[in-house]
Amino acid sequence: MTVPVGLPPASPVSPASPVSPASPASPVSPVSAPVCLRACEVSAPVARCSTGRTDDGSDHGSGQARTTPAGTVVGTLVGTVVGVFAHSVSIRCRDAHGVPLIVSLSDVPVDSVAQARIPADRLADLRLAGIGTPVALETAGAAVVASRITAHGTPAVLSPPASWFDTAEGRRFGVPRLERAAEAIWGDQDAEALEGLCGLGIGLTPSGDDALIGLIATARTAGLGTRVIGRFTETLTSPKAAGLTADTSLCHLRLAVGGDFSATVLDLLAALTDPADLADRTGLSADHGAPSAGQPRIAAAVTRLAHTGHSSGADLMAGVAALTRRLAHQQTSSEPSESGRDQQ
Fold first, then answer.
1. pLDDT tens across 284-301, in order?
2. What is the C-alpha to C-alpha distance for residues 9 and 237, in angstroms, rounded to an integer?
3. Which of 168, 241, 316, 342 is paired with 248 by a 20 to 30 Å CA distance?
4. How far apart are CA 3 and CA 220, in angstroms?
5. Other CB atoms within 10 A of residue 149 CB
6. How would you list the strands of the sheet with 115-117, edge to edge?
């Protein structure tokens, strides 16, 4: 992975979720038969990867789950436990194209971009089973949480909470790369600038990867960077991808370039583009756009995302902020000056 001299590489483990790792001595399970679980709720990427038989008994082995009119999904997801944590278990499976997908199993409502909610007692059983345990996750009847983001407007400027990019190392190694990546998306060129953030920083998912997801989410919301994100997508699906960052981050980046994000990210971008919340953008506070008391929806979205992982949410918002500031600067510099208007 790409980590500057003087910074430790990020651990290639767990998704960016608010959990703490279990004991490093997690047992490797000798179990050969899969542990069968039933999901209560799944995110859309998990639903799309489910396969199996439909309610009427017909096979749909194309790798795509069938979604019923009521919004539930029918299918089974098969994988292997690769991470055991205090409040979640991660399994590795594959999507319809054979691309690895890391799915977080938890007993809390679905929030991660690739997550399934299962009963607490079954989660406890799975945690005890340990690394290497095969899992068959039944998704029939599970509610599906949407994850796709679409272009629907330019987000307001956001000033994020403190993140790794505010540390001495982050300012030295991270900020220049983050600004270059924001410029690359704005200009829709220089895909290598996006690669420069991969594997950078700290955390269960590296800070640079989280910020990159924030950049991509903002770009998709504003309808920017189509070409450069397309080229970055090619990199993420090439043999080169294996050396860029940790497996979990690579999974999340692949989902991001495909348009899939967690509910917390969707909520933040929706709040930053909602005319009802932004009727008076001058209501943003003076510190570069931090949500004011008059914008409770934005403040709530920021708070919720800030509590995702140890630093993942704040690092992701650093990416959102980098591009929204770039957009605001461009809009300001393109407006006629007072003297220019006087001469017109």
1. 433 444 554 447 889 999
2. 22
3. 168
4. 27
5. 20
6. 35-38, 134-138, 76-84, 88-94, 100-106, 115-117, 41-43, 142-145, 72-74, 66-67
